[in-house]
Please model this.
Amino acid sequence: MHGRVKLKSTAQQEEEKRKEREKKLKIYVTAWDAVFAKRKNGMLDDEALLLTQQLLSSNPDVATLWNYRREILLHLETIREEVDVQKMYEDELSFLESCLKVNPKSYGSWHHRGWVSARLPRPDWTRELGLCDRCLSLDDRNFHCWDYRRMVVKMSGVPVDQELQFTDRLIGSNFSNYSSWHYRNACVPFNNMKPLGVILAFSEYELVQNAFFTDPNDQSAWFYYRWLLGRGMYCYVVPPLAQLLFLLSELSVEKTSVLQSELQSCNQLLELEPQNKWCLLTIILLMRALDPLGYERETLSHFQTLKEVDPMRGAYYGDLCSKFMIENTILKMEYAEVRVFSLSDKNLTTLCHLDQLLLVTHINLSSNQLLRLPPQFAMLQCLEVLEADNNAIENLEGLYHLPKLEDVSLKNNKLSRLSDLQPLASCPKLTRLDLRRNPVTQLVNIESELAELLPSVTDLLL
Model:
């Protein structure tokens, strides 16, 4: 039809795109072959530099090309005057900006930029900070850019106050900017020997509290808060943990007065947000740092609430609660200096700190939620009696070669195969075994097979 633009069919468009791709690929492959031929022949000239530039402009993530490019630049650096070297590296920085536009998170581009900046005779750090500002304004979680900024700040000697103001600006516009919070821990000069460190610490508490009181469900501020409380500013160990360093809470390095004040603030937030998981978990950690035994009841209550409000992570909370309950029991045992260790009816889902129970002779793990006895259980070489009734134990891999074990009670578990009991054969003094209400007791000829597997057992309850 006269006067009308002819529209190309879809098939025509696809065919033209295919031809265009083939044309670009042919050019790319030709340049690629030429680059590797030059490198094989040890040619470090301007032409090789131009060829690598063509390839990297299309795909800046080929590490080999960046390596070859650095070899060329190092060679040219030795044969040129300082003015020319300055110009050469400035051109390289301009080229790198174009590569970052293609892929702002290119490992190779950022690494090469750091290398070039370090070799510049007269680096312009203000320009580099400006580049970081622009990149972070487009993506405030570009960790390559954050790493590069740390290098620039270190090399240029940017004042701490300036960097803190920079992160203040980003955090002020977005409390969820986790990268900015993380960057602050490298900026804030905490030092227990200087009053400035203490002053800054309290200003940081105020900043982070403003963040999580504004948006309690944002995890970024909570993670920074936990780091802030446990950063090691004070070399202080909270009693009664002083003699058991392996039980230290991640927050217990801060002064008791500060921890108590922060616990009060978190409790105030919990009154406003009773189902906030981050607040609940932080309160638990603060209680652990202050007085793990004194706050045990409140800790258990908060863990129960956590499982209800965040069921997806229920297993994690169960394991963490188990860890804390075992630590508390070890503390009590230390005070009493006994060799009987009872963890019955604690809702345990896992076992830990078994290396602290090497002298224990009697362990009661009954009425928990254990699925297995882990391999570390074999460390308990002094163990004589084990009670693990009313769990969900499916294998006994940890009951291996316990030379003093005599009595094992495993009533009401989920042992279903004879092979599950095989580790017990390595316990030479085992004389009593209770397997009542386990599926394995329903197997045909189980009694005779157990007698053959465990000849030392004289008191077998099925």
